[in-house]
């Protein structure tokens, strides 16, 4: 079977990570893979913020819990030691689609390197707050950015969960 198709079929969302740090080199490879995602008119508007700083991860966890309505002891990133945040330029009419493609590429790249990942929502709401807009400004990102998602990233204890059976009647051919 083709390696890409095999990776697509095998990748699963991981919701339990070991605390082991992910080497910066691997995070860089995964983030770089995300920059190759297709984008509307080739504008490459999405940006990726790699977070491994424990204090900042804690701030993200607390904000995500507050938005999600969970108790403060819940970890919406499932113990992941790294989170890649994808944001896209709101002025681009394809920003949500472009950022979603980046998220997909990040998760496939992580899987190909033996790491687990999971798409975590609520980045949109987080980056509408002053706290996280200031974070963006501190990085020199002064435009209007839409939070697309968080890619929780880390090592997990194999095996990955088995895939759910595929639903019938989802592919149609004409001609």
CATH topology: NADH Oxidase
Radius of gyration from CA coordinates: 17 Å
How would a crystallographer describe the biggest sheet? Answer: 4 strands, antiparallel
Structural domains: how many = 1
Q: Architecture, according to CATH?
A: 3-Layer(aba) Sandwich
Any overview of this molecule?
- By secondary structure, the chain is α+β, with helices and mostly antiparallel strands.
- The protein has one domain (18-154): 3-Layer(aba) Sandwich (NADH Oxidase), CATH 3.40.109.10.
- It contains 6 helices and 4 strands, in the order H-H-E-H-E-H-E-H-H-E.
- The chain has helices at 3-10, 24-34, 54-68, 95-112, 123-126, 130-138, and strands spanning 47-51, 82-89, 116-120, 145-154.
- It has a 4-stranded antiparallel β-sheet.
- Helix 2 packs across helix 4 (95-112).
- The longest helix has 18 residues, at 95-112.
- The protein is globular.
Keyword list:
175 residues, 6 helices, 37% helix, four-stranded antiparallel β-sheet, alpha+beta, NADH Oxidase
In short:
This protein is 37% helix and 16% strand. The protein is an alpha+beta fold and 175 residues long.
Fold blueprint:
Elements: H1 3-10, H2 24-34, E1 47-51, H3 54-68, E2 82-89, H4 95-112, E3 116-120, H5 123-126, H6 130-138, E4 145-154
Antiparallel strand pairs: 1-2, 2-4, 3-4
Helix pairs in contact: 2-4
């Amino acid at each position: 079977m083709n390696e890409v198709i095999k990776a697509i079929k095998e990748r699963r969302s991981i919701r339990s990570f070991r605390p082991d740090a992910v080497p910066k080199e691997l995070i860089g490879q995964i983030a770089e893979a995300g920059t190759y995602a297709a984008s509307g008119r080739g504008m490459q508007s999405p940006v990726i913020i790699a977070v491994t700083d424990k204090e900042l991860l804690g701030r993200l966890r607390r904000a995500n819990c507050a938005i999600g309505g969970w108790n403060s002891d819940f970890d919406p990133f499932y113990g992941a030691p790294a989170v890649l945040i994808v944001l896209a330029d709101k002025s681009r009419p394809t920003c949500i689609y472009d950022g979603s493609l980046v998220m997909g590429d990040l998760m496939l790249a992580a899987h190909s390197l033996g790491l687990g990942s999971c798409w975590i929502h609520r980045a949109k709401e987080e980056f509408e707050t002053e706290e996280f807009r200031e974070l963006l400004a501190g990085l020199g990102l002064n435009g209007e950015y839409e939070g697309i998602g968080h890619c929780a990233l880390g090592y997990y204890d194999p095996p990955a969960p088995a895939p759910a059976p595929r639903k019938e009647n989802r592919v149609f051919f004409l001609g």
